[in-house]
Amino acid sequence: MIVCVCHRISDWTIARAAQSGMPFDDVQRAYGVATQCGKCETCARAVWAAGSPAQPVSVATVTGATVVLLPA
Ligand code: FES
Question: Strands 59-62 and 65-68: what pairing?
Fold first, then answer.
């Protein structure tokens, strides 16, 4: 699923970055997530948090959509 429409960044890309230990600020710098219109920020942060090693959650619900993060 595309999370950031402005930069065409998927939940998979954000989750993989989070799983690698990339802080959200670095995800923004690397991919431009939530740096244009900003409408994706809440969803992007939720996907990132779910994929972050500090919060090992395998399933997250984001504004009505279920995001399933698969193990690396
Ligand atoms: S949808 Fe991500 S910055 Fe616009």
Answer: antiparallel
**Atom 2 of ligand 1, nearest CA residue:** 4
Residue-range domain boundaries for the chain: 2-68
pLDDT in tens, 32-71: 999 999 999 999 999 999 988 865 555 555 666 666 555 5
The architecture of the domain spanning 2-68 is Orthogonal Bundle (1.10)
Q: pTM for the whole thing?
A: 0.76
Please give the Cα distance from 53 to 63 (Å, whole number).
22
- Residue 55 CA to ligand 1 center (angstroms) comes to 24
Q: Is the CB of residue 39 below 6 angstroms from any atom belonging to ligand 1? A: yes
37 CB near ligand 1 (under 6 Å): yes
